[in-house]
Design a protein that fits this description.
The structure holds two protein chains of two kinds.
Chain A: H1 2-33, E1 41-47, H2 50-65, E2 69-77, H3 79-88, E3 93-97, H4 98-105, H5 114-124, E4 129-131, E5 143-145, H6 147-153, E6 167-170, H7 182-189, E7 194-196, H8 205-212, E8 218-220, H9 226-230, E9 234-235, E10 248-253, H10 259-271, H11 274-285, H12 292-302
Parallel strand pairs in A: 1-2, 6-7, 6-8
Antiparallel strand pairs in A: 3-10, 4-10, 5-8, 5-9
Helix pairs in contact in A: 2-10, 2-12, 4-5, 11-12
Chain B: H1 2-10, H2 28-60, H3 64-76, H4 79-89, H5 94-119, H6 122-130, H7 135-169, H8 179-186, H9 190-217, H10 226-231, H11 238-242
Classes of the chains: A alpha/beta, B mainly alpha.
Chain lengths: 307, 257
């Protein structure tokens, strides 16, 4: 009898402890979600693909090493989900790609070069959001076909797809309505023969599988994805610059981007190269299956931001 | 209001016809067809596996614990995760989707089948045996007809789960009505999102309604309905207890998501 009592007490104690821990979690997340307050605490968000998550941890860990209080909300989703979160202050900082964020904010934007994009982006950003310096690192959408398919149909650039009577294209669902997605393929390259078949994995393994398995013929895969080289895919040229300059740029809530934070982010950006992005992706996506946070920590160490 | 906008999105006739994936055409008819096709295929396979197994368990009374255990394990598998793995292992087509839906569909069907057969009054079966029916005849002429209502109850629970879960496959180039949920979310188009949710819900309700009618018809004449009997258990007459009582229908366990 006594024994069961003790058991019951232990169970209750455990439940209470678990409850308190959970309450603690929810509490801290609601704190970090609040828009203003301590300018020295920053919530870093990210889109839902590994490269972006790695970049988010690079910003976050660099800031943390400098004494800023950092929390994370990674893998939020598509731009349509995280930009409102940024405006509401649920997150304060996110790694972005200059051209994509510009065309998301301004559907008529047609700037292509990096300096033009930078000026246009400053104007297009909603009030309360600021962009720091662009990194040399760039990652853009790229349309890929298998080597066999390219050879059979003599495909070199995106415009060559017009030769086919019909072609299935796979990309993230938002590609269907994005200005530099299907509407752009139609208006810029005059392609009216595309059947869209979305896979929601950001050009990841399922997209690759569909392309190699022949369920789709053209796949939108980020240009820094190792699978392009590994599978000898042919990336179709984009002579009309449908996909704009996609340099990595930190975007954050103005109040949080103090001069100290901004100068640190700019130092990080100055060191980031496209080769780094490729390496991040082969580490997180390859056999190593590295945790983005580990990859970020390693990069910061290699580049002298942390010890 | 978004609900009204979603309804007018649905009732826009041009959204029903055409080929999906061309110029942002929702092509609801094609998507509905895709959902129904994969649902029917998965349900048929799940029935073919779960019903004989359930009847065997119910008839022999053996393997019940193992079946419950296996069912619960299957129920605990995260559908999306399993689907992602199978897609990478097999191909981006309907096969992994069907496998996932069958795994999801078996537990409620199995439960319906063995609970149905188990619920048949033992006296009735003894009587059948006494008048010289073989075991097969007992299964087909006594147990299955009396278990029919619970069987269809299991079918109903399974069908709802399977149809609702087809939406997950839409993230992997499968199409189906779930595409509006995935697109709506990614494209920040909440009208499409809500419209998709309404369409899936409506489909589930219609199919469930049809199955409810079948369930009512499935009850053999002369058998008291479990519900009527259990409504006033104390007043239940000896005669009605003697009749083969069929338990209260829908076995709606495991309605996750």
């Amino acid at each position: 009898m006594k024994k069961t009592h003790r058991g019951a007490i232990a169970a209750v104690a455990t439940a209470v402890a678990v409850g308190l821990t959970l309450a603690g979690c929810s509490n801290s997340s609601s704190l970090s979600g609040s828009g203003d307050g301590d300018s020295e605490s920053i919530t870093v968000g990210s889109a839902n693909f590994p490269e972006n998550v790695t970049l988010a941890y690079i910003y976050g860990e660099a800031l943390a090493a400098d004494g800023v209080k950092v929390s994370y909300k990674v893998n939020i989703g598509a731009r349509a989900a995280y930009i409102p979160a940024l405006e509401k202050g649920e997150i304060n900082l996110i790694p972005e790609y200059a051209g994509s964020i510009l065309s998301f904010l301004d559907k008529n934007a047609n700037q292509k070069s990096s300096s033009e994009v930078a000026t246009a982006l400053d104007q297009a950003l909603p009030k309360g959001l600021t962009a720091a310096d662009f990194a040399p690192a760039a990652d853009s959408d790229s349309l890929n076909v298998t080597a066999d398919f390219a050879q059979q149909n003599d495909l070199k650039s995106i415009g060559d797809l017009a030769k086919l009577s019909s072609v299935t294209l796979t990309a993230n669902p938002e590609f269907e309505t994005r200005p530099d997605g299907l509407p752009g393929l139609k208006s810029v390259y005059g392609l009216n023969n595309i059947t869209f078949s979305p896979i929601n994995d950001g050009g990841g393994p399922a997209t690759l599988k569909a392309l190699l398995g022949g369920q789709t013929q053209v796949a939108d895969i980020y240009s820094t994805t190792p699978s392009i080289l590994e599978n000898k895919l042919v990336t179709l040229d984009d002579p009309k610059n449908l996909f704009a300059s996609q340099q990595v740029v930190p975007i954050g809530t103005t109040g949080k981007l103090t001069s100290k934070v901004t100068s640190l982010l700019n130092k990080v950006s100055a060191k980031l190269t496209t080769k780094d992005l490729l390496e991040f992706n082969s580490r997180t996506g390859g056999d190593e299956k590295a945790d983005p946070k580990t990859v970020a920590t390693d990069w910061l160490k290699d580049n002298g931001f942390t010890k | 209001m978004i609900f009204v906008q979603a309804l007018s999105w649905i009732f826009d006739g041009s959204h029903w016809v055409g080929v999906a994936g061309r110029d942002g055409n929702p092509a609801i008819l094609q998507r509905l067809g895709e959902t129904l096709q994969i649902s029917v295929i998965s349900i048929v396979i799940a029935v073919l596996i779960a019903v004989p197994l359930g009847v065997l368990i119910g008839h022999t009374g053996r393997g019940r614990t193992a079946a419950i255990l296996a069912s619960n394990v299957a129920r605990g598998l995260p559908t999306l995760g399993l689907l992602s793995i199978l897609i990478l292992l097999i191909a981006v087509n309907a096969v992994p989707v069907a496998i996932v839906l069958v795994i999801l569909g078996i537990p409620p069907m199995l439960a319906g089948a063995y609970a149905g057969v188990e619920s048949v009054n033992r006296d009735t079966i003894d009587a059948a045996r006494a008048v010289g029916l073989t075991e097969w005849q007992i299964v087909f002429r006594v147990e299955l007809p009396l278990a029919a209502s619970l069987l269809v109850g299991g079918l109903r629970a399974m069908t709802l789960q399977v149809i609702a879960t087809t939406t997950v496959a839409s993230a992997f180039a499968f199409g189906g009505l779930g595409i509006y949920l995935i697109n709506g979310l990614s494209q920040n188009d909440f009208v499409q999102l809500v419209a998709g949710a309404i369409l899936v819900t409506a489909l589930c309700l219609v199919v469930d309604g049809l199955l409810a009618i079948i369930q009512r018809l499935a009850l053999p004449r002369g058998v008291s309905r479990g519900r009527a009997a259990s409504a006033s258990p104390k007043k239940r007459s000896r005669a009605s207890r003697r009749a083969a009582i069929v338990g209260t229908p829908p076995l709606q366990e495991g309605m996750q998501s």
